[in-house]
Amino acid sequence: MKKALVTTGGGDCPGLNAVIRAIVKRAQQTTNWEVYGSMEAFNGVLRSPKEIIKLDDEKVAGIHTKGGTILQTTNKGGPFSWPVQKEDGSWITEDRSDEMIEYLHREGFDAVINIGGDGSQKISYQLFKKGLNVIGVPKTIDNDLACTDYTFGFQTAVDIATDAVDKLVTTAASHHRLMILEVMGRGAGWIALHSAIGGGAEVCLIPEIPYDIDKVLERLNTRYVGGRGFAIIVIAEGAKPIDGTVVARKSDEVGYENIRLGGVAYQLSDQLKKAGFEHDIREMVLGHLQRGGTPIAYDRVLATQFGVKAMEMAINEEFGRMVSFLDHDITSVSLERATEGQNLVNPNGFLVQTAKGVGISFGD
Ligand code: F6P
Annotated catalytic residue: which of 142, 144, 159, 299? Predict the structure, then answer.
């Protein structure tokens, strides 16, 4: 029998379980592949005792409707920077990739399917270069992975954010308020842009277009007559003013390398008041609600396509590649290319033009 190992790494994302289920179901249609899962990304392989489970029919039945990941996940550590506590209580990291690869070879794993975002795919590529048969599957609500038009989870996050805009409109209109909705996305403004258009916001602020507070104010003032009116701003967590910096803090969690974004909505609120905005403002940070819960049908379908494709790539021994959705086709790209850049909003692209065409201001 041939063996595939599945891992889910990075932040959880709606659709992860649908990918896992599709991999298992596609493998079941062969006579010579069985599928295993490592718990919490590669931690299951690195821990002692190992946390590797067999993925069979019973384990994956009906999981495509569930959020999160049955394999659990982490965005800390990993085979190249495993955290180790020293006697004095401080932490260092160890590269355990050779030991891990040796173990997987010894145990007869013929393919590793690593489902994750940019950080996870960089790990995929490094492991592939060291001789592991890795296939990447792109995952993130941020939609910021290069070489794929969409990642699964993104449309579910957009739906949740758009629903939040719809709900905030009722309060904004009833109280003559400005409601500021902060959404996720790290360095990419995709969730903000889509939900601003979908929800009909007046202002959308994204990392790709640094904003001028006076231009934002100008647009907001068009919404108020004699003290009455309301407005909605959708701001991406990574947005920043011209000459400003992103609102972020360093995490104190051991092994967590990323900066923690969040709170730009409050900064914007202060800036608007200083700039002379006279009406009531409320801020709302949507946070992790955007990536929890049931994946919408679109993401279940995309995730299922990714899972089937990944298993077929394992069968055909197409390693060192990432599954991708390009030009309405499910295809694959080399991990080298996929990890080179990011998928960011084009400030001159059609979607931004569309938003401007319906009067949305980017503060530019
Ligand atoms: O990358 C996905 C994402 O949800 C970002 O949009 C957000 O900045 C980050 O993860 C939050 O990560 P964590 O769950 O570790 O706080």
Answer: 142
